[in-house]
Amino acid sequence: MIKNFVKTSLFFISAMLILTHIVDGKPIHHLRNQKENSQKKQTFFPYQLEIFENHNDLNKNYIITMDTHHLGTTLLTFNSPTCQANAQGTTKLISENPTKLEFTSKEDPYCKITMQVTRQNQLKILKETIPCSTWHGDFCSFTTLSTLNHVYPSSTKEKTSIDLNKKDVSP
Amino acid sequence: MKLLSFLMQETILLNISFLLFFPINDYAQEPSQSITEQTIKKNPINLILYESRTKKSYAYVTYMPYYPAYGMIHYNTAHCKIEMTGFIDPFELKKNKLIISYKKCKVSFDQKGKILANPSETESCQNLHSDKCNFTAIPDLTETHLHF
Q: What is the pLDDT of residue B15?
């Protein structure tokens, strides 16, 4: 009698547990994985500096440092024998197109540079406003720079900046 | 012959006095190159990065030792986010001191091997952040090797 009672209660408890997960639409192993994932996510603070770079023998120190998913301070520097173009400022997302970023110079807020992160996680400089000419020579501009490759951190290759940007834009 | 022996004696005396004033150990303790120069020699990229990442905070300081000599500071916790870009002082770098300044605000760090420590800021930096946090709260940062 007691054995039957124990068996029945155990059956009910296990049935309730299974039903709870079925109602949620999530299998047990999925929940466990989710828990593990959230624990992994909580391991480190989610901000990250990103560096985009492109160089060849003649054009050295072609570096952009920024954080494209939590936007803020940014440095743009280009140094070649024929062109020096450098600016420091902040970058924010363009709300109409989350793949586009707008840089505003710290020294002159009228100097704005529009950039785009491509699907290959490269950075293209699309256009600049006229006041930006203060920060480079007459014969070159930020828009003449070739596409930059994402070089740091290398571990976020699978998670592109575009995905991260989309996350930020969503309300 | 007398002259030669006199000269030799003088040379020995000079050497002894030189070693008394400037012991050999001092040369071993003070490398001629600064930490920045040593880092650039190992990895010739005009960008040096120091980072610190924990469960509750992320901080980095990055700087270009050569032209355009920019520096950038970032410190982020749940309650505090402070950032700054500015120019570095190349002369202080030779003394293993990293100073990043924007207008009158100067933030300085001590370079100790691969560690960036002891942050301090001038009063003018208060305009760049709230009263709750400041650049002195930045923990010790470790150099991150960059490979392009």
A: 54
